[in-house]
Specification:
Layout lengths: L5 H15 L9 H13 L4 H11 L2 H14 L6 H7 L3 H12 L2 H4 L4 H9 L6 H44 L9
Helix pairs in contact: 1-2, 1-3, 1-4, 4-6
């Protein structure tokens, strides 16, 4: 078996859909929650390791959101100690519970900036983490076209080399080296 161990799989399942699919939207897919149920019910989880990873990455709130969403939809229980360790402060908890209970991510999915600002940023444990995520996203948006252009340019060069090699091979010249 090649892949993440059970603890790493759980870590990924707890945070991934919060940031990539806004947790409750149709794009998040209930299959991800079924994966989470399977991991929780069929595997020996070392919660101490998972909690340490979540704490050091500043993503306890994101994991708490996923566990809370799971609890709203299923009868799958996570140890109370885990839930209380992950739970954010009172005001943030109430705000995010309101967001989940009203399924605002799905209601506003067409306005992704609203969801990013109103939900995703609050899934970070610290304001500094949310700020860094926002700055990184902004930088990626600015550099995206340049990066795409450089990739397209490189692909064009690779394609030209391949065409030249095929032409040379058809003319009985030696094979071209791999790029």
């Amino acid at each position: 078996h090649w892949g993440p161990d059970d603890n790493a799989t759980l870590y990924l399942l707890l945070i991934h859909s919060v940031f990539t699919k806004y947790l409750t939207t149709p794009q998040a897919s209930l299959v991800r929650l079924l994966d989470l149920v399977y991991v929780l019910e069929k595997n020996e989880i070392d919660w101490e390791i998972v909690l340490d990873w979540l704490d050091s990455s500043g993503l306890k709130t994101a994991a708490w959101l996923t566990i809370t969403w799971l609890g709203l939809l299923t009868n799958v229980a996570v140890p109370d100690l885990v839930t209380s360790t992950l739970q954010p402060g009172h005001i943030k908890k109430r705000y995010l519970e309101f967001w989940l209970n009203k399924d605002l991510s799905s209601r506003w999915q067409e306005k992704s900036k609203v969801v990013q600002l109103g939900f995703t940023l609050f899934a970070h444990d610290q304001v500094a983490d949310a700020w860094r995520a926002a700055l990184t996203a902004r930088a990626c948006q600015k550099s995206g076209p340049e990066l795409l252009h450089s990739i397209e340019k490189e692909l064009t060069l690779v394609e030209a080399r391949q065409i030249k090699c095929v032409t040379n091979q058809n003319q009985s010249q030696p094979e071209c080296p791999s790029p």
